[in-house]
TrEMBL record:
Pfam families found in the cross-reference section: Aminotran_3
Name of the protein in question: Adenosylmethionine-8-amino-7-oxononanoate aminotransferase
Residues forming coiled coils: none
A single Gene Ontology CC term: cytosol
Amino acid sequence: RSTRDYQQLDAAHHIHAFVDQKALNAEGPRVMVRGEGLHLWDNDGKRYLDGMSGLWCTNLGYGRKDLAAAASRQLEQLPYYNMFFHTTHPAVVELSEQLFSLLPSHYSHAVYTNSGSEANEVLIRTVRRYWQILGKPQKKVMIGRWNGYHGSTLASTALGGMKFMHEMGGLIPDIAHIDEPYWFAAGGELSPAEFGRRCALQLEEKILELGAENVAAFIAEPFQGAGGMIFPPQSYWPEIQRICRQYDVLLCADEVIGGFGRTGEWFAHQHFGFQPDTLSIAKGLTSGYIPMGGLVLSKRIAEVLVEQGGVYAHGLTYSGHPVAAAVAIANIKALRDEGVVERVKVDTGPYLQQCLREVFAGHPLIGEIQGSGLVAALQFSEDPASRKRFANETDLTWRCRSIGFDNGLIIRATGGRMIMAPALVATRTDLDELVSKTKLAVDQTAREIGVL
Ligand code: PLP
């Protein structure tokens, strides 16, 4: 079929996520047909370097035969069974054995889902249930952050802080928000360390305003992904942890993007050195090959649910789906046995971060370079010295992204930031291609507005 055919059918039947549908239909989406390693090919044979691992998820890259074989074997052996009532199956049990062998020993239980959004739905219900069992049913407010992203269902949208998503309405009550720790934009005269502490103290102020007896949990991404790949200052997480412990508020990390090696640690909270009570996971759990997510619980929470909770009134038909579990097992084994996460930590991660700093330090369009491991952001700035942002920064970053696309590069534009998160199997050669194509796109954007 021709690309035009696909585009016309696509326009006739689909509403795409987070894009102006009419404008997309006029332009026509790119039709991706094949992937290998970090590269994708469209229906016309054009090759792209995927600098975003799809949606931050194909951690092992494309074309893994071991993952396909694991799915195929499981499809033949036992394509479906469930964890309702009194049954389980080997795939999900062995997945948990693998998963908890990666995690610190204070985590013990998981509730599996099909997506990250659902993981956060489970989180809200489970956290509220935990406090009910402990005789504190009024402790039910969840605090999230403005510009955080936790999914697209009603509850996960409410938990997130994307105001343009809130406008669709229908959100759940008992959610509050504090500001994001975005120093470049909001730090003013404060040092990053002072600003990080200031942002964390907002949590304390919010808890006191709501009454600690009403606050169930605080949730955040260890580094903010969809909100612009924002790394908080080092001072932020220790202070947040101190506040959560002091007021008996559960600390919930959304590891949907940060989990499974992105920063060079298995989980992003390990990179920042704090200890959450729950972890929401998805994406890298299966390298995106098949939908799967989950909520990981600490022993403290699990013990209460198991020993005192009675019936856990929550279930999904596909929770712990055997085929997804089989793919997740193969994925975790490959990430570990091939030393993928370790390589991100000691080799490819530092290499990418160093290359970006060498190439973009002093660039007239770039005010900040952030990242660790294989995730990074370039902040556009009208005057990098004073951290002035462009009034039309979103237009500029989307222009940069589109130049990249035309040159066979996929990177992401969010607000004033260009984001990259390549597959964790990236070689130095792949990363050289990523950096040089990004440079080309940023330079052309700079030339178009006359600053280069
Ligand atoms: N949490 C975070 C941090 C995410 O980035 C996302 C998706 O991008 C989600 C949750 C939602 O995951 P899903 O799209 O699988 O529902």
